[in-house]
Specification:
By secondary structure, the protein is an alpha/beta fold. The protein folds into 2 domains: 272 residues, LarA, N-terminal domain (Rossmann fold, 3-Layer(aba) Sandwich), CATH 3.40.50.11440; 73 residues, Alpha-Beta Plaits, CATH 3.30.70.20. Strands 1, 2, 3, 4, 7, 8, 9, 10 and 11 form a 9-stranded mixed sheet that branches. Strands 5-6 form a two-stranded antiparallel sheet. The protein has a two-stranded antiparallel sheet with strand order 12-15. A hairpin with an 8-residue loop joins strand 5 and strand 6. Helix 1 crosses helix 2 and helix 2 packs parallel to helix 3. The radius of gyration is 20 Å and the shape is globular. The N and C termini lie far apart (48 Å). Bound molecules: iron/sulfur cluster (2 copies).
Length: 388
């Protein structure tokens, strides 16, 4: 596999500037043959949020990517995502992505409308995924992630972004089936092996730091990354914001499959290097010591290892994990968190103005989906023992 990651500077989201940066990055990273192809573009639309919040891939970035692919002779360009709580008729209006799809004559695809079974022979914890049927029409997929921190997985980039190919609420049940970082990372890696995306273009012009992927703060990095090797690209992005790539569960798991890379030192940088653009004060999610099922060299499925852990150890792990807490003064009682919670640990109680969200911490698996989805950032992830 090609090990090149192109890192190119780009000052802002002016479409022409992003287009030129992306073109240089793709050419430097080894090129891409899109002539006559149907391409599925997967931006990150965690939920439909305004571009300045840095929650979604920026519409200017998407427009530049479409322009580049059209210039390369792509036959059809399909764009879509599946936010966790996708309303009927979702068209990505607030994020500006829907307007770009219309303006460029690309096709918007509602991922909830059609599903197919995708098998992954090499899956360690998942051999078959139910995904959008847009994959059936596409010759290949390009992941268009936004560089962001992530409360559960520390970092979200090109590989994690493909989780959105799985339609809507089905996704939250994955957190119940794969409750540890390690087992979740194994599932995401299996998904990437099944989909085999052709490329990733990363929007790191304005990234998100702090308590991502939705409640953090926009942080200007002024960078565009491109690679046909998604693990290499994610590892480079982690290096830029100051995470050792091997400390990120998805990177570590993907590396162990010997498909993308044999070691992070194999990555080549034809444009800028990580050292040249590294940010020393990026606010990251604190790396915690894993009490989970990590046994070096053991090839047994991580999902299985979760259940092999003795119950007291699992309870201890949960008790020591940071947990979600509701700020009642901010909560607008929309109930989104109760709908996304796959382990049914959240409930809206009371009536009228007295309504409040109750969390049953004995059921809570610390997936932080509620924190991700809350539209008013009323859910904080707090260190254990600090109360609600
Ligand atoms: S905590 Fe957030 S998501 Fe949950 S009900 Fe309140 S506002 Fe809605
Ligand atoms: S309460 Fe929040 S963190 Fe706990 S299981 Fe539910 S969605 Fe996940």
């Amino acid at each position: 596999m090609n090990n090149k990651v192109a890192i190119v500077r780009c000052a802002d989201y002016t479409v022409d500037k992003v287009y030129r940066a992306l073109k240089l990055a793709v050419e430097s990273a080894g090129g891409l043959d899109a002539a006559g192809k149907t391409v599925l573009l997967k931006p990150n639309i965690l939920f439909d949020a305004a571009p300045e919040k840095a929650i979604c891939t920026h519409p200017g970035f998407l427009e530049a990517a479409i322009q580049l692919l059209n210039e390369m002779g792509a036959k059809r360009i399909i764009v879509g995502d599946s936010p966790g709580l996708q309303p009927p008729g979702f068209s990505a209006k607030t994020s500006g992505i829907g307007a770009v799809v219309k303006k460029t004559g690309s096709e918007w695809r509602d991922f909830t409308k059609g599903k197919i079974e995708l098998s992954g022979q090499d899956g360690r914890v998942m051999k078959v995924f139910t995904v959008t049927d847009a994959l059936k029409e596409a010759d290949f997929v390009i992941s268009l992630p936004k560089l962001k921190t992530h409360q559960l997985m520390y970092f979200t980039g090109a590989m994690k972004n493909l989780f959105g190919l799985i339609p809507t609420l089905t996704k939250s049940t994955f957190h119940v089936r794969f409750p540890s970082q390690e087992s979740f990372a194994a599932m995401i890696t299996d998904l990437n092996l099944a989909v085999k995306p052709a490329y990733a273009f990363m929007d790191a012009i304005i990234a998100m730091e702090g308590p991502g992927p939705s409640a953090g703060k926009p942080r200007k990095l002024g960078l565009v990354l491109a690679s046909s090797n998604l693990l290499a690209l994610d590892a480079a992005a982690c290096g830029i914001i100051g995470y050792p790539p091997d400390k990120i569960p998805i990177n570590r798991e993907a590396l162990s499959r010997n498909y993308w890379l044999k070691g992070f030192d194999e990555i080549e940088y034809p444009c800028l290097t990580v050292e040249e653009v590294k940010v020393t004060d990026f606010v990251k999610v604190h790396l915690k010591k894993s009490l989970g099922p990590r046994v070096r060299g053991l090839r047994a499925p991580s999902q299985l290892l979760d259940f092999l852990l003795p119950k007291p150890i699992r309870c201890l792990r949960d008790a020591l994990s940071s947990r979600p807490g509701i700020d009642r003064s901010l909560c607008i009682r929309c109930g989104d968190c109760t709908r996304i919670c796959g382990s049914r640990a959240m409930e809206l109680k009371g009536e009228g103005k007295e309504k409040y969200v109750h969390i049953d911490y004995r059921r809570c698996i610390r997936c932080y989906c509620c924190h991700e989805i809350c539209p008013v950032h009323a859910i904080e992830v707090k260190k254990a023992g600090l109360g609600r």
